[in-house]
Design goal:
There is one protein chain. By secondary structure, this protein is α/β, with parallel strands linked by helices. The chain folds into two domains: 6-100 and 299-317, Rossmann fold, CATH 3.40.50.720; 104-290, Rossmann fold (3-Layer(aba) Sandwich), CATH 3.40.50.720. It contains 13 helices and twelve strands. The strands form two sheets. Strands 8-7-6-9-10-11-12 form a seven-stranded parallel β-sheet. Helix 5 crosses helix 7 (160-171). The N and C termini lie far apart (43 Å). The structure holds 2-keto-D-gluconic acid. 2-keto-D-gluconic acid binds at residues 54-55, 77-80, 103, 295-296. Residues 54-55, 77-80, 103, 295-296 line the site of 2-keto-D-gluconic acid.
């Protein structure tokens, strides 16, 4: 018997985090990094004092209702907590934490790369250089993309990541517009020279680029649905490194196939890791850039996420409120 909390980690984490967790807690790791199925998750939740899941583990109300008496903390290795039913956890007296802030800048960097890549045809160009045929040489009207500078960027969700994107985008000469449940602090709005749109519909109709930066909640499921996608301009680009479920994917694909919008850069998908073959066909044509949910994937960021998980667990078992406690949303 040990007085250390029993911590079960669902996926392989950075080495440093795992080593530290082994020292501090009675830790069960997942060295193979094989995704746990429902029964394995239920088993883990029956034995653990603390579960450390990731975005690939759906910790729903049903699993939570079957959790063991001793499960007291779900310390998510990730910022988004849409994988966890926080209300159900709270009702059972289980605290939920996440790993905010440490992945903000990395994710914003990736969003900028995505935002530039499709209009400026980065992948198409790189593909030419890697092909057997090779490069035939410069030509005045070859590989022409679309200008970014001076365009209007509409950010859906001006939180930490949205603001970090806005700061970068300003340096690229983009005009910042945003839609949020409510306007951000006037000082931040002034710093970003950002224009607030109360009406998402009205903003969508006027933007050149849309970046999705809101959390996925019941209120944002298919926020960008068919009718709203139809409001977008013909030359518009959509960037999504938030959650796939926020876009009605079938409607986005229709708009891309018919040329109703110009392109999309997507790091997340509605049914990931499955991806529609129609998306792949669009990617072949350079209309879509698809990335495998790697927006926050840096060595530094993952280590810092590990540190956060550990601090949250330690603070909790020291009898204090963990720094990154997550409460259920009111919407
Ligand atoms: C993480 C993410 O890789 O943190 C998030 O919300 O989507 C990703 O950046 C993932 O959550 C790890 O659980």
């Amino acid at each position: 018997p040990t007085s250390k909390p029993r911590v079960i980690v669902t996926r392989k984490l950075p080495d440093a985090a795992e080593t530290r967790m082994m020292e501090l807690f009675d830790t069960k790791l997942n060295i193979d990094d094989t995704k746990m199925n429902r029964e394995q998750l239920a088993q883990a939740m029956a034995e653990a004092d603390v579960l450390v899941p990731t975005v690939t583990d759906a910790i729903d109300a049903d699993l939570i209702s079957k959790a063991g008496e001793r499960l007291k903390l779900i310390a998510n290795f990730g910022n988004g907590t849409d994988n966890i039913d926080i209300k159900a956890a709270m009702d059972r007296g289980i605290t939920v934490t996440n790993t905010p802030k440490v992945l903000t800048e990395d994710t914003a960097d990736m969003i900028m790369a995505m935002m530039l890549a499709v209009p400026r045809r980065l992948v198409e160009g790189a593909r030419v250089m890697m092909s057997d045929e090779g490069w035939e040489g410069w030509a005045p009207s070859w590989m022409l993309g679309n200008r970014i500078y001076g365009k209007r960027l509409g950010i859906i969700g001006m939180g930490r990541i949205g603001s970090a994107v806005a700061r970068r985008a300003r340096a690229f000469g983009l005009a910042i517009h945003y839609h949020n449940p409510k306007p951000v602090h006037p000082e931040l709005e002034e710093e970003l020279e950002a224009t607030y749109w109360d009406s998402l519909d009205q903003m969508l109709a006027r933007m050149d680029i849309i970046s999705i930066n809101c959390p996925y909640t019941p209120a944002t499921f298919h926020l960008l649905h068919e009718r709203r996608i139809k409001l977008l301009q013909r030359g518009a680009y959509v960037v999504n490194a938030a959650r796939g479920e926020i876009i009605q994917e079938a409607a986005l694909i229709d708009a891309l196939e018919t040329g109703a919008i110009a392109g999309a850069a997507l790091d997340v998908f509605e049914h990931e890791p499955a991806v529609s073959p129609r998306f792949r066909a669009l990617a072949e044509k350079g209309k879509v850039l698809m990335l495998p949910h790697m927006g926050s994937a840096t060595v530094e960021g993952r280590n810092e996420m590990g540190d956060k998980v550990i601090i949250n667990i330690r603070t909790f078992f020291d009898g204090h409120r963990p720094p990154d406690r997550v409460l259920p949303r009111r919407d």
